Known about the structure:
This protein is mainly α. Helices cover 64% and strands 11% of the residues. It has 6 helices and 3 strands. The protein has a 3-stranded antiparallel β-sheet with strand order 2-1-3. The termini are far apart. The relative contact order is 0.17.
Amino acid sequence: MAVSSSIRNQLRTTLHHELGHWLVARHFGFKAGEVSVRLEDQQVLGTSLIEPYAPVQLADTKQVRSNIFNRMVVLCAGVVADIASRGPEVSQAVIDDAFNKGVMDETGLTDRGKVEELLFILVSIDHEASSDTDVNEDRSQKIFGEAYGRAQELIKEFFPKLELMATFLRQGRENAIRFEFPYERVVRAELDAIAQLSKSQQKA
Length: 204
């Protein structure tokens, strides 16, 4: 069955989204697993299996904060990769929609919903308690901006590899509406992408 160009594009950007999570999670030492993207009931869903247990014991507040912040960066990285995959002319409306109403996984939450829960904890670690809603919102937005900015830095660094990984994983399956890639297959795509980039740099 032929897949419409609109659905095909949504599947493509969602795969970029999930690979963004996957690559940044591994960068921080979180355990990553399989990646899946599928069309269900006319909605494109995506999942990157990430276990955000800290790679070391969290012995103090500073380490707890760092681990939570890194988890937020992983969550932001999906939408950053999603947006990057759409090209440089993407509108602000699309950017806002991608994050606020973005890819949903089997938890029924978007990345934004998960980030907001973590922001409450980080604000409480960084600041004395306040009953002023505006103050708390400003504090939250500052932390969010830092996490999102860090995700942008990492995705910019990883994007050439990420794009090749997505291409390798979808090769020969342009009309598929369900992609399920075990961990070993994603790692193979990463290694193949690294090899191709290295070969291209040698020729340059």
